[in-house]
Design a protein that fits this description.
It holds the Pfam family AAA_22. By secondary structure, the protein is an alpha/beta fold. The protein is 46% helix and 12% strand. The protein has 12 helices and 7 strands.
Length: 308
């Protein structure tokens, strides 16, 4: 809708994870290095956690592009117990067709698969996304599954990706043996203000932008409302560009961001609880504008009263 208006060749702020747009902040670079080190060091279990929308899935897709020629990779994306038992998920993740009737048969089929990959000198990597949704009993099954070895060499490596609740679950007394097997772990935190501004510019450049679309006051407001969470940044930026296109303006400032937030509030989904957000008819009132100015200044050091 707005891509041609801004001189872009694709949408820069899609909510669908896309490794092409991966911005490696210092935090994301460490997380990616941690994942790669876990694979290189033959770690049995690697755990990566982060808040919703922090970029975990994008990191995983980026890593998959790097290792697909070296390893056999399976990904489990739906870990709810209603969708079957663990071995059914595992066989499906590796596209192993079967008509087994029992867990024992499924286990033997997977052992056969691991052995075949070992003969080909290929390691098997199982990635479990949204792992915080797994029941404790299922996580324990996963630990037992990791006992598969071929000639004393670990041929199955497991990477668990999840929200912070995953750590709480792994600290349960019933999972002490599981926790002891975790070799590598990393918690991905949100972006800071400087990284948020660089993130926005990076995605626009990948999409073909030759100019700075969001000025510093807009970036400051985006950081204030998103708290540096990439998915929320994308959500705000995408709608801000729609608003700018509708208003025939190619530079976006903080007032457009406030308009976006107010639009989101009217939808009834409260993504920005606890944030100052003057209603459109209050924008010119000194007290309301001052609250927002101080809040953004405190978070970012940017004084929006000196910007447009």
């Amino acid at each position: 809708m707005y891509t041609k208006f801004f001189g872009l060749n694709k949408k820069p702020f899609s909510l669908i994870p896309d490794p092409e747009f991966l911005y490696l902040s210092s935090k994301h670079r460490k997380a990616l290095s941690t994942l790669q080190y876990g694979l290189m060091s033959h770690a049995g279990f690697t755990v990566i956690t982060g808040e919703i929308g922090s970029g975990k899935t994008t990191l995983i897709r980026s890593m998959l592009n790097k290792i697909k020629d070296q390893c056999t990779v399976g990904v489990i994306t739906n870990t709810h117990s209603a969708f079957g038992d663990l071995l059914t998920w595992v066989l499906g993740a590796f596209d192993i067709s079967h008509d087994t009737k029992s867990k024992a048969e499924r286990y033997q089929l997977f052992v056969k698969f691991i052995t075949e990959q070992a003969r080909k000198k290929r390691r098997v990597v199982l990635i479990v996304d949204e792992a915080q949704n797994m029941e404790i009993e299922t996580l324990e099954e996963l630990r037992l599954l990791s006992n598969i070895n071929v000639q004393q060499e670990i041929m199955l490596q497991l990477i668990l990706i999840g929200q912070p609740e995953l750590v709480d679950k792994l600290n349960e007394p019933q999972l002490i043996q599981f926790a002891q097997r975790i070799s590598i772990e990393y918690h991905l935190t949100p972006l800071n203000f400087e990284e948020t501004e660089l993130y926005i510019d990076h995605r626009l450049q990948i999409a073909g932008s030759q100019t700075k679309v969001f000025n510093q006051s807009a970036c400051a407001a985006i950081f204030y409302y998103s708290a540096g969470v990439p998915r929320l940044i994308n959500n705000i930026c995408d709608l801000a560009m729609v608003f700018a296109f509708a208003n025939d303006t190619k530079e976006i400032g903080w007032k457009t961001i406030v308009e976006v937030i107010n639009e989101r509030k009217t939808g009834g989904i409260n993504r920005f609880r606890g944030k100052h957000c003057p209603e459109p008819d209050l924008m010119q009132k000194v007290a309301e504008a001052e609250k927002l100015r101080r809040a953004i200044l405190e978070k970012t050091g940017v004084d929006i009263s000196k910007c447009h």
